[in-house]
Design a protein that fits this description.
With 749 residues, the protein is α/β, with parallel strands linked by helices. It contains 26 helices and 31 strands. The strands form nine sheets. It has a six-stranded mixed beta sheet with strand order 5-4-19-18-17-6.
Length: 749
């Protein structure tokens, strides 16, 4: 018998020796394991673990209200009883005085791959039983796409990801994959809900073996794995839409687009075509026009057009492109370009959104209807787009636009956060810090003394995945894993379930919250419900799961779900009248009457070139474009305190990649400590010189724990979100725009 723990970055075997020392090993059935996940043991026993409940001194001294000193104050250790007493009183007082809409229950991030101890599920269940809470909607990863896609192709984001043409199908028929934003393999090492076997690398290799050509449209050569032998087309960040418009322009002028596909499967092409040809605004989207914007030679743009016309082509758009100013446009334009090539609905091409962004995209499995912890219904309808936290705190009662609706920011008096770290993923952190002072009370369940804990009032010490039993069930992964507890709770920490149970007891609904079930009772309950759903789904194949006891003993189960060669929109292509898209027209909406009716100044009826609010085409004081991509040695900010992430630092600071020319111009050498700065803040980082990045662009990956020196107004660790601007993609999607950032850098003395 082996013991396993499954995480967002992979599944691992663990063993415990006679001295109670835990050892993690890669799972032998995973051919491409994520090595940094082995650092979970380091992190679980780290000196930064929170040992017991704490309360912030200034908050307590100020009669349990904000004193404006969150992030720069001392903490007092308290008992669990005292912590539950303080927190329950704050919850009740807030509810009585302001109503449940004054409570913002945040849980954003990758807190747990387990279906029971999933932090957001626990938060939702608790607060729904308490009377509800103001919530957030969307994901920082793809917020603009979440809003746009239903209008354009009639699918929500998750359904779109499930429908993606499989690597297996692409490898047989596709000839060219045009990667806008690349396909960095490191991003595919993770998947929300947990990972059994990593499949992306094998899928890519199969494509290569069958002769598929890859082209990397990106300022960063490393955005394509070296084994793809991808030709790089360096492009100014945030200008992919302009390049695609020029490609469309060439296709139209050369009569080289698929007119029959456009006529049968799309609406609104005429209006779009008029725009591309300059009939609307006297600006022809020609290769010459695009060259000035993208910094790609006209000759290269024309050759690229010839290439996509001559080959069966997949237009691939990375998630990163829509996390930028007017981020809706490159995705919309990518779908439009794919429609013009006429291969949507075939294995030969079409479009993709997020190949290699997570492990499951492009797999060959149906989505499996696993069950989760029942969460109830939130009676409070107030919500914000996920990236509008600071605006919400700064502007209570103000109206804002989202997806054609006028919404109002709730007036938040109490924040409860469990899972995730807003001081990692939010933009313009100096602005967030100020806004974070406004609520009366902030309560967190947290594992480590990270920036979220340091900016809280009441801290409940939480467990890692190694300290609890759970069940890994990912609807997009055919492996189920029994997550068995590898160690006792660290010091005086508890699981989120135990924490919320303690609060529920104080608040008088313990029985409703726990349903008189223990941790293992709930795990068995979720297994039984999932087993029933699975058997019902695959009744024709007579497939079923083993008994829980058999499964738990073995530690994992590989679901015998049938492998399929998925082709996105194949039914729609075969018969659009019988299988229409869930759009107003039933077709792909190159121009959307719905979006047009919103009359938005920053998102028109069809794909459009909007000049970014900061970009290399209009440089002033800050001449370098900052890309804050996903790190190689951790997931977002998770495991930043583990050995592998720490080893990657330069003098304890996050590395920033700089082109040799930009470094030479500033007398910067490898290993130098440099200061990145703009009007929003200052950040220290370690110089890493490389010509894998084009001049004028620097890369500082996300996830370094926010470490501000408030007296000097400088961040000491290398967190790029001190520098990013906190403004929405547009009034349609309101997604984050972290990839639209200009900075300067210099060597520190």
């Amino acid at each position: 018998m082996s013991n396993y723990v499954s995480t967002h970055w992979g599944t691992y075997k663990f063993s415990v020796d006679e001295n109670n020392k835990i050892k993690l090993d890669n799972w032998e059935l995973d051919s491409s394991p994520t090595e940094f996940g082995l650092g979970l043991v380091d992190a679980a026993n780290d000196k930064l673990r929170i040992k017991q409940p704490y309360v912030r001194k200034g908050w307590l001294d100020n009669n349990c209200k904000s004193d404006g000193n969150r992030g720069r104050d001392d903490f007092i250790p308290i008992s669990w009883e005292k912590a539950f007493e303080l927190a329950s009183k704050e919850l009740l007082d807030t509810k009585k005085a302001f109503g449940n809409s004054a409570i913002f229950a945040g849980s954003y991030g990758w807190a747990s791959a387990g279906r029971f101890h999933h932090a957001k599920s626990q938060v939702n269940r608790f607060f729904n039983l308490f009377g509800g809470f103001s919530s957030s909607f969307q994901s920082y990863s793809y917020a603009a796409a979440q809003t746009l896609l239903p209008h354009i192709i009639g699918l929500d984001l998750y359904s779109t990801l499930d429908e993606h043409t499989s690597w297996e199908a692409l490898s047989k028929e596709c000839e060219l994959i045009l990667m806008f934003g690349g396909m960095p393999l490191k991003n595919s090492k993770v998947s929300a809900g947990g990972v059994g076997k990593h499949v992306t690398k094998q899928g890519m290799i199969k494509c290569i073996e069958n002769g598929v050509e890859f082209i990397n449209i990106s300022p960063l050569q490393d955005d394509a794995p070296s084994f793809l032998n991808a030709k790089q087309v360096p492009i100014r960040p945030n200008t992919d839409t302009a390049l695609m418009l020029a490609l469309a322009n060439i296709l139209i002028k050369n009569n080289a687009y698929d007119k029959s596909f456009i006529k049968k499967y799309t609406v609104g092409f005429e209006s779009f075509s008029d725009y591309v040809l300059g009939k609307k605004n006297n600006q022809d989207c020609s290769p010459e026009w695009a060259s000035k914007i993208t910094n790609i030679p006209v000759k290269s743009i024309k050759k690229l057009a010839e290439k996509i016309i001559s080959k069966k082509t997949l237009i691939s758009i990375s998630w990163s492109l829509q996390r930028a100013s007017r981020g809706e446009q490159p995705l919309w334009m990518g779908i439009t370009l794919a429609a013009m090539l006429g291969q949507i609905g075939t294995a030969a091409g079409g479009f993709g959104f997020g190949y290699s962004s997570v492990n499951s995209t492009g797999d060959s499995y149906d989505k499996i209807p696993w069950q989760s912890l029942p969460q109830g219904v939130n009676p409070i309808k107030d919500f914000i787009p996920v990236a509008r936290v600071t605006d919400m705190l700064e502007k209570p009662g103000d109206e804002f636009l989202y997806d054609g609706k006028k919404l109002t920011y709730p007036d938040i008096k109490l924040i409860y956060w469990a899972g995730g770290n807003p001081f990692h993923h939010h933009q313009d952190l100096n602005r967030l810090v100020k806004a974070w002072q406004k609520p009366n009370t902030i309560i967190v369940n947290e594992i480590w003394w990270n920036p979220q804990a340091l900016h809280a009032d009441i801290i409940f010490p939480a467990n890692t995945a190694l300290e609890r039993n759970d069940l890994m069930l990912n609807p997009r992964d055919p492996t189920i894993v029994a997550n068995k507890s590898a160690m006792k709770s660290f010091e005086n920490s508890k699981t989120d379930f135990e924490i919320f149970s303690g609060l529920a007891k104080k608040l008088g609904f313990l029985e409703s919250f726990t349903d008189n079930k223990s941790e293992m009772d709930w795990i068995k309950f979720i297994w039984d419900k999932s087993s029933q759903a699975y058997k019902k789904t695959y009744k024709e194949s007579d497939l079923s799961l083993p008994s829980f006891e058999e499964f738990w003993e073995k530690g994992y189960f590989e679901v015998p779900a049938p492998r399929i060669e998925k082709i996105m929109f194949d039914k729609f292509r075969r018969d659009p009248s019988r299988f229409p898209l869930q759009t107003p027209s039933g077709k792909i909406e190159i121009s959307s009457d719905t979006i047009s009716s919103f009359q938005l100044p920053d998102c028109h009826s069809h794909p459009y070139w909007f000049e970014p609010y900061e970009w290399l085409g209009n440089v002033d004081e800050y001449p370098l474009h900052l890309i804050s991509n996903q790190p190689t040695h951790r997931l977002h900010s998770q495991l930043d305190n583990a050995e592998m992430s720490q080893k990657n630092k330069i003098h304890g600071k996050e590395p920033v990649m700089i082109n040799s020319k930009d470094a030479s111009d500033r007398d910067i050498k490898n290993g130098d400590i440099v200061l990145l700065y703009n009007a929003r803040g200052k950040v220290l980082a370690g110089a890493k010189i490389s010509d894998n990045i084009m001049p004028g662009v620097v890369v500082l990956s996300t996830g370094a724990w926010f470490d501000p020196d408030y007296d000097l107004n400088i961040e000491r660790h290398g967190n790029p979100n001190v520098l990013t601007k906190d403004v929405g993609t547009s009034s349609l999607g309101q997604g984050p725009t972290c990839h639209t950032t200009l900075v300067e850098l210099k060597k520190t003395s």
